[in-house]
């Protein structure tokens, strides 16, 4: 069983994907970490994020066994990842790796922005997780504060809207719900409510395909 979770920044897709993976005993991949890792490589080299040749080289040589997730989180990395993710050859370089992860015999849970549309178009279930920009900014603001990053809420909201525009407007694999995705709006849902709704979507999809 392959579960594809897509959605914009801070929609809750990552949290739901992790919980669904535990619930169904499946491996989980946060594909956003791949783009963050590419961006981290460029930043560590002092290279510009929009240098296509260097970004592709970083993507092709990515060593996922040595990712330091603590260095891939935070506001700076989210913005940087959005920049490199808009480079078509970078996305192409990472497609095969993501599909290989999804092809495991037992299946997998993957979350990102193009899982249901590009990476796993034949996924067992596709869920598009969304929430209002204001609510997503509040969540990200709390998350950043918990890490000690004192960023004004207004700046976080501006970042969210900028990322939405970049992710939805790129020419390659834009952020969009697959035609057969099940929409899950988490604006007014707590974590447990959102998880139960996601499980209901998965079970409904399994019954339809039985």
Explain what you see.
Its EC number is 2.7.4.25. One of its GO terms (biological process) is pyrimidine nucleotide metabolic process. Its main location: cytoplasm. One of its GO terms (molecular function) is ATP binding. 55% of the residues lie in helices and 11% in strands. The protein contains 9 helices and 5 strands. A 5-stranded parallel β-sheet has the order 2-3-1-4-5, sandwiched between helices. 38% of the residues are buried.
Our Rg estimate from Cα atoms comes to 16 Å
The oligomeric status of these chains comes to single chain
**Tally of separate helices:** 9
Approximate shape: globular
Topology-level CATH name: Rossmann fold
Question: Major sheet: order of its strands?
Answer: 2-3-1-4-5
Task: Give the amount of beta strand, in percent.
Answer: 5-15%
- Which percent bin holds the helix content? 55-70%
CATH class: Alpha Beta
- Uncertain stretches: none
Largest sheet: 5 strands, parallel
Look at the structure and give the mean pLDDT.
92
Task: Count every beta strand, where a strand is a DSSP E run of 2 or more residues.
Answer: 5
SSE arrangement, N to C: EHEHHHHEHEHHEH
What class would the helix/strand composition place it in?
Answer: alpha/beta
CATH superfamily grouping: P-loop containing nucleotide triphosphate hydrolases
Number of domains: 1
How many angstroms does the end-to-end distance come to? 12 Å
The name of the CATH architecture is 3-Layer(aba) Sandwich
Pfam families: Cytidylate_kin (PF02224)
Domain Cytidylate kinase: 3-202
Binding site for ATP: 7-15
Enzyme class: transferase
């Amino acid at each position: 069983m392959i579960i594809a979770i897509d959605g914009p920044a801070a929609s809750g897709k990552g949290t739901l994907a992790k919980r669904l993976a535990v619930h169904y005993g499946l491996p989980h991949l946060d594909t956003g970490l791949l783009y963050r890792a590419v961006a981290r490589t460029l930043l560590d080299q002092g290279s510009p994020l929009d240098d296509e040749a260097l970004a592709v080289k970083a993507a092709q040589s990515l060593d996922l066994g040595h990712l330091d997730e603590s260095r891939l989180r935070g506001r700076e990395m989210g913005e940087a990842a959005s920049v490199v993710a808009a480079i078509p050859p970078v996305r192409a370089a990472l497609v095969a790796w993501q599909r290989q992860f999804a092809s495991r015999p037992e299946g997998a849970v993957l979350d990102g922005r193009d899982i249901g549309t590009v990476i796993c178009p034949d996924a067992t279930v596709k869920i598009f997780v969304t929430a209002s920009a204001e609510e997503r900014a509040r969540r990200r603001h709390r998350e950043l504060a918990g890490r000690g990053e004192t960023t004004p809420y207004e700046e976080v909201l501006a970042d969210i809207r900028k990322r939405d525009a970049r992710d939805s407007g790129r020419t390659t694999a834009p952020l969009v719900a697959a035609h057969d995705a099940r929409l899950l709006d988490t604006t007014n849902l707590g974590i447990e409510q959102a998880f139960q709704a996601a499980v209901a979507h998965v079970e409904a999809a399994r019954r339809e395909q039985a």
